[in-house]
Design goal:
The protein is globular. By secondary structure, the chain is α/β, with parallel strands linked by helices. Helix content is 49%, strand content 16%. The protein has two domains: 179 residues, Rossmann fold; 186 residues, Rossmann fold (3-Layer(aba) Sandwich). Strand 5, helix 6 and strand 6 form a beta-alpha-beta unit. The protein has a seven-stranded parallel sheet, sandwiched between helices. It has 17 helices and 13 strands.
């Protein structure tokens, strides 16, 4: 069968590449084509256009590049029609992908599957109408989404597990239990000390600019006992970090986030998938999300973001397991106090570690891409035989 996939960012490229590998195992005649990234191409997909050509975030950036986005949509639609796939598989990236879903549905070409559901439970809940009308099957990677889509909106979905569980388990398998943090040339500290406080300040410059200085100031009093290690984000120049570090005894390590977390004692983490990865490595954490423009933060908190929590960990367990410091709540003093509480001997450390086990049970065992591929192939085969 012919599978057309569309992913619009690095995480989607990663998850889609694993799905492609799993589909190849299910379908020996599988062909893949679409929009995505290097990992999808390496997995065997013919890459029509790279996601970085259309990766514009925020209202201003989208407005400035509106013509480019429209051309990308047109190219994608034309390519789908020319290739005549058996299914179009959308991977997150709802602004672009929901328009493609509407188009494919309107011409009745093939089924539309959505792998990694749009986060309607957080914002833009009105998009459920588009999904109900134009998406044939939804494959969710977050267990609480079942209640949102099925319970609240009466739209059936498939929970297939979480691919981050697979990625962490695969990393552990490859590194094995004896692996220890390998210092690269950018690490400054000598000796065998591997006691680490990890600083994961986000993947975008604005997030780093807002959060890293406060993280560093909060962690500074613990630097005599712990190595402070920043997990450098892909595409961010080391000099961008160094302007905030100055002469502080802090390391920046790129491309080794899992290595850092595997040896971290505690972490300060900007909200996102990183909070889930930190929990899967059983590292107690404080979730930090400062926003420089306070009035914007207040509007987002009250009127745009519809969830009681911002971290995936808390959303999965349905309560505040890890502390969240959002906007003005993220002061240096408050961050430092919460960090002290999750270090060894702190009164909040054990509760987090126990809560992580509950979270892992809710997520389920590894195998999300395999489960998704098996189900997709079964559904497509069944439809062809009707």
């Amino acid at each position: 069968m012919k599978y057309y996939l569309i992913a619009g960012e690095a995480s989607g490229d990663l998850h889609a590449s694993h799905l492609i590998a799993a589909l190849q195992a299910e379908d020996s005649d599988a062909e893949f084509r679409g929009f995505g990234g290097d990992l999808m191409q390496s997995a065997g997909m013919t890459l029509v256009r790279h996601y970085r050509d259309l990766a514009f975030m925020g209202f201003v950036a989208v407005a400035l590049h509106f013509r480019t986005i429209l051309k990308g949509l047109r190219q994608c639609k034309d390519d789908i029609v020319a290739w005549q796939p058996d299914v179009v598989i959308l991977v997150d990236y709802p602004g672009f992908n929901l328009k493609i879903a509407e188009f494919v549905h309107s011409i009745g070409l093939c089924p539309v599957y959505y792998y990694i559901a749009p986060k309607l439970w957080a914002w833009k809940e009105y998009r459920i109408k588009n999904i109900r009308r134009n998406v044939d099957e939804m494959f969710s990677i977050l267990p609480f989404e079942v209640e949102f889509f099925e319970g609240k909106h009466g739209y059936p979905i498939h929970y297939i597990g979480n691919p981050t569980v697979d990625e962490v388990e695969e990393w552990k398998r490859m590194k094995n239990e004896e692996y220890r943090f390998a210092r690269n040339e950018e690490c400054k500290l000598e000796g065998e000390n591997t006691a680490i406080i990890a600083l994961l300040a986000g993947s975008r410059k604005q997030e780093i600019r807002d959060n890293l200085p406060r993280m560093l100031e909060a962690a500074k009093p613990f630097a005599h006992r712990y190595r402070l290690v920043i997990a450098g984000a892909p595409g961010i120049d080391p000099d961008f970090y160094k302007q905030y570090i100055g002469n502080a005894d802090v390391e920046i390590v790129f491309g080794k986030t899992y290595d850092i977390l595997s040896n971290a004692t505690a972490a300060l983490v900007t909200s996102g998938t990183a909070t889930l990865e930190t929990a899967l490595f059983r590292v107690p954490q404080v979730v930090c999300y400062f926003m420089q423009v306070r009035w914007l933060a207040n509007i987002a908190r009250r009127f745009i973001i519809k969830t009681p929590y911002i971290s995936l960990v808390n959303l999965i367990v349905g309560r505040q397991l890890v502390p969240e410091l959002v906007a003005a709540e993220m002061t240096v003093e408050r961050t430092r106090s919460l960090l002290a509480a999750i270090l060894p001997g702190g009164d909040a450390r054990q509760a987090q570690l126990e809560g992580y086990e509950e979270m892992a049970l809710r997520l389920g065992a590894p195998g999300a891409p395999i489960h998704a591929a098996q189900l997709m192939h079964q559904l497509l085969t069944k439809n062809k035989n009707l």
